[in-house]
């Protein structure tokens, strides 16, 4: 055998452990909700779902606090007005309307205007989409984080949490990975387990077959054995090696106490 049995064998406990760990990771890495925490001037607090973009830098681990300002022009398809120059402890975040140009260009214009993050909102829909980029030159220039929100979220932010109304936001980082990042390794582990189980079963079958072949005589050896036909009333030796036709195995029988083996009719 090319591989020893010890290298191929996985116990049921080991397989169960692998499946349990991968399933736990699968269930706990699902995307979390409430990625935007909004605080109004009168201490009203709300949380909103968002979808991080597939370009730009990730949010800091402790989140990004900032003041929300609407983009001018709203679609940010061209250079937009910069944020106020007041000396504030937080950064400025710009709210951008979807459509009319690519997501990466919107975020790049926000970055060049001096904003530390961008929120792009949907139009006539509350669906969340993952913003991507196909322009490598633009992609390399983007360093600020950006997220996508629904139209309902954008309207709520405009009503209660804008900078001119005394509100502020905290963009909470989402440490979960996209589905394919952990689903593919999970399927790989499952596939490896199944392959090892099949290999182990085949190996065990082959070894059992070889062990069975080694435990019995070859055909040429069986042909050399003398064959005695017993007749009723004839005495037999005390120890006889006989062959049972059904199993083709050799056995020693002690027939000392049986002078006349009438019960050996099945022996050839």
UniProtKB/TrEMBL annotation:
UniProt keyword terms in alphabetical order: Glycoprotein, Membrane, Metal-binding, Signal, Transmembrane, Transmembrane helix, Zinc, Zinc-finger
Record GO terms (molecular function): zinc ion binding
Transmembrane segments: 181-206
Tagged with keyword Glycoprotein: yes
PA domain location: 66-157
GO cellular component: cytoplasm; membrane
InterPro entries membership: PA_dom_sf, PA_domain, ZNRF4/RNF13/RNF167_PA
Localization annotation: Membrane
Chief location bin: membrane
Keyword Coiled coil carried by entry: no
Matching PANTHER family: PROTEASE-ASSOCIATED DOMAIN-CONTAINING PROTEIN, PROTEASE-ASSOCIATED DOMAIN-CONTAINING PROTEIN 1
Protein name in UniProt: Ring finger protein 13
Species of the source: Fundulus heteroclitus (Killifish)
Lineage: Eukaryota, Metazoa, Chordata, Craniata, Vertebrata
């Amino acid at each position: 055998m090319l591989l020893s049995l010890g290298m191929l064998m996985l116990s049921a406990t080991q397989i169960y452990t692998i499946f349990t760990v991968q399933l736990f990771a699968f269930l706990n890495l699902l995307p979390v909700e409430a990625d935007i925490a909004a605080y109004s001037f009168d201490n009203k607090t709300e949380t909103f779902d968002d979808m991080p973009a597939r370009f730009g830098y990730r949010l800091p681990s402790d989140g990004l606090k900032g003041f929300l300002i609407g983009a001018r022009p709203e679609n940010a398809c061209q250079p937009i007005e910069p944020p106020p120059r007041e000396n504030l402890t937080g950064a400025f975040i710009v709210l951008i309307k979807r459509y009319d140009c690519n997501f990466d260009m919107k975020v790049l214009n926000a970055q060049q205007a001096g904003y530390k993050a961008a929120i792009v909102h949907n139009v006539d829909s509350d669906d969340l989409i993952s913003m991507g980029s196909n322009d490598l030159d633009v992609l390399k220039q983007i360093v600020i984080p950006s997220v996508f929100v629904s139209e309902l979220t954008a309207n709520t932010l405009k009503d209660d949490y804008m900078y001119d109304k005394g509100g502020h936001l905290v963009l909470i980082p989402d440490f979960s990975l996209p589905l394919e990042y952990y689903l593919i390794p999970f399927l790989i582990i499952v596939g490896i387990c199944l392959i090892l189980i099949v290999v182990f079963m085949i190996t065990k079958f082959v070894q059992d077959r070889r062990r069975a072949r080694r435990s019995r005589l070859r055909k040429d050896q069986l042909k050399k054995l003398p064959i005695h036909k017993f007749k009723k009333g004839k005495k037999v030796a005390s120890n006889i090696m006989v062959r049972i036709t059904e199993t083709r195995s050799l056995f020693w029988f002690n027939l000392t106490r049986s002078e006349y083996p009438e019960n050996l009719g099945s022996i050839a």
